[in-house]
Write a structure and sequence with these properties.
339 residues; D-Maltodextrin-Binding Protein, domain 2; 2 domains; 42% helix; single chain; nine-stranded mixed β-sheet; alpha/beta; 12 strands; 19% strand; three-stranded mixed β-sheet
């Protein structure tokens, strides 16, 4: 993965210097899959000479840009329901599965040492649990020495699919959250400080002692953040991994007739991580030739090479059966990539 990231840095310099010429595909949206989309773009350019320029601006921004037709594709972790897709005249499909973690900064506590459950996470983010040595946290972690330090909550300040997934997890699992806050790309946060993008949340948690924030797993790894284990709906303590993300992904109701609209948070599998999403791609219905260029790139990403890059960055590739459904969906709507 180090060589891949080194190549991405070089690619970023080439992009910014304007020294790469040729065909360009422009996309914008979710920060959640940005590390992977950047890696795919780097390898795709090396093989084809076609540049994929992806702006990591948040799912809300990605939906707005494709709705305004200022990009060739948008990306959103928050799946759009069929009626909204019809209104905006968009097609949608899932591209890869990823998980979110609770990143923490508590001196002396390492990754995967602390256990949290949905009720505790809910009441931390509601502001009801204010200190790290709260009895609920101590009960889940009897062997940890927890400080009497105030918890600093870090959340997204921008319109965010990562937020939609995280708040959907809480909305399903915690009645108090459902009643007081709900879920969506942007919510009225009861407590905490806001940061832009997964990058911003990761940077804040890294700098602020006794903080907690939600980030996509790759950002936690790349920023060397500590993160917790979670108790899933089956009552099992699980850790974030390719296997636990894939276990959750099996429960999605991926119906092409509904443009693959589904949620995969809080699935019942005993091995499933509870904060999981299939991040989605959006293209304009009236621009089939542009859409074909987009599907050609993402079809390349569905290859064994693309899947291997995903695994290196701890994203779960889609099952082959689902990829087949997506290719048939492209064919049905006349946007299957040309050779």
């Amino acid at each position: 993965m180090k060589n891949l990231l080194k190549g991405l840095i070089t690619f970023g310099i080439l992009w910014s210097s304007g020294s790469i010429a040729g065909e360009t595909i422009n996309g914008a949206g979710a920060t959640f899959p940005y590390p992977l989309y950047a890696a795919w773009a780097y390898m795709y350019y090396k093989e084809t000479g076609i540049k994929v320029n992806y702006q990591s601006i948040g799912s809300g921004g990605g939906v707005r840009q494709i709705a305004n037709r200022t990009v060739d594709f948008g990306a959103s972790d928050d799946p759009l329901p069929p009626e909204k897709l019809d209104k905006l005249k968009l097609y949608q499909w899932p591209q890869v599965i990823g998980g979110e973690v609770l990143a923490i900064n508590i001196p002396g506590v390492k990754s995967e040492q602390m256990v949290l459950d949905a009720d505790t996470v809910c009441h931390i983010f509601l502001g009801n649990i204010k200190y790290w040595d709260n009895p609920k946290i101590k009960k889940l972690n009897p062997n940890l020495k927890l400080p009497h330090k105030k918890i600093t909550v870090v959340h997204r300040s921008d319109g965010s699919g990562t937020t939609a997934v995280f708040t959907h997890y809480l909305d399903e699992a915690c009645p108090d959250w459902h009643k007081k806050v709900g879920f969506g790309k942007a919510v009225k946060w009861p407590v905490g400080i806001g940061a832009k993008g997964n990058e911003g949340v990761a940077n804040y948690v890294k700098r602020l002692r006794y903080s907690i924030g939600y980030v996509e797993y790759a950002y936690a790894l790349q920023n060397k953040l500590k993160y917790t284990l979670l108790v899933n709906p089956a009552g099992k303590v699980v850790k974030p991994s390719l296997e636990s993300f894939s276990a959750a992904g099996k429960y999605g109701n991926y119906d092409p007739k509904k443009h693959f609209y589904t949620w995969i948070t809080n699935t019942p599998g005993p091995d499933a991580w509870p904060i999981v999403a299939a991040t989605n791609i959006l293209v304009a219905r009236e621009k089939p030739e542009v859409a074909k260029k987009v599907t050609k790139f993402f079809n390349w990403a569905f290859s064994k090479k693309g899947d291997e890059i995903a695994r290196q960055l701890v994203y779960a590739p889609l099952p082959e059966e689902l990829k087949k459904k997506i290719r048939n969906y492209w064919k049905e709507h006349g946007i299957y990539p040309e050779d």
